[in-house]
Amino acid sequence: MDDYPLDEYDLCTICRESLPNFDAAYSFGSYEGALRKLIHLFKYAKVESLAQPLSQFLLRALPLHQSFDLVIAMPMHWRKRWERGFNQAELLAQPVARRFGLQLSTNLRRTRYAKPQASLTEAQRRQNMKDALAVRNRQQVVGKRILLVDDVLTTGATLRAAAEVLKNAGAGHVFALTLARVDRREFSADVYQSRKEELQPIFAGVTAD
After folding, report:
1. Which domains are present in the chain?
2. What are the pLDDT digits (tens) for 6-49?
3. CA atoms within 13 Å, Cβ hemisphere of 155
4. CA angle at residue 41 from 72 to 85, to 5 degrees?
5. % of the chain with per-residue pLDDT over 90
6. Helix, strand, coil distribution of the chain in percent, nearest 5
């Protein structure tokens, strides 16, 4: 399932190299092959029916012993949500929240419209996320164990920005959960450029039944 497994301390490549401010990151697999194609169909070809089976992959990535007080989907700016028609992280996170008997929290919001992260370098991603997120109600996160849900973990810039905002608001622990992660050893500006080209309407002929 994953060519880049966690080490003996349950840390992935990004955790080992980036020293993120979330407490742990869990991913179902690597961002390649069939999993990558499914994510593209879901996210860019707008095959929303994939949300349920993909969310089951997320649940399989979580350690059985973990528990959480809040489940939060990575928020999307209203303008980008209007353009896409849905927030893919929310659709993925809803079954995860139900698994823990929780309502999906909307306590994290986007404060400004940011460039799409897919075509940016790591440094540009960090700058792009600066002051882009805020907590609506600080009292709801104080001391809580929070699970952040997103589709892909590339450099971790977006998740780190979210974790920083939540911890500054008083969150006790912040964990990241994604369908896939990109191996840092393959990360380069050239990869981002090729990926940007891939995100053109390559699935224009694909429709959801």
Report:
1. 21-198 (3.40.50)
2. 555 555 555 555 555 789 999 999 999 999 999 999 998 999 99
3. 21
4. 55
5. 52
6. 40, 15, 40
pLDDT value, residue 139? 95
Query: Which residues sit opposite 175 in a β-bridge?
Result: 24, 147
Instruction: Annotate 144-190 with DSSP letters as a single string.
Output: -EEEEEEEEESSSHHHHHHHHHHHHTT-SEEEEEEEEE--GGG--HH
Residue-wise pLDDT for 67-108, tens only, equals 999 999 999 888 888 888 899 999 999 999 999 999 999 999
Eight-state DSSP code of residue 13: H
Q: What are the structure tokens assigned to 164, written together?
A: 């920083």
Query: Pick from 154, 173, 155, 153: which is nearest to 163 by CA?
Result: 173
**Which residue is associated with the tokens 């949300």?**
51
CA distance 84 to 48: 11
- Indicate if the pLDDT at residue 194 is higher than 70: no
Instruction: Please tell me the distance from the alpha carbon of residue 31 to that of residue 23, in angstroms, as a whole number.
Output: 22
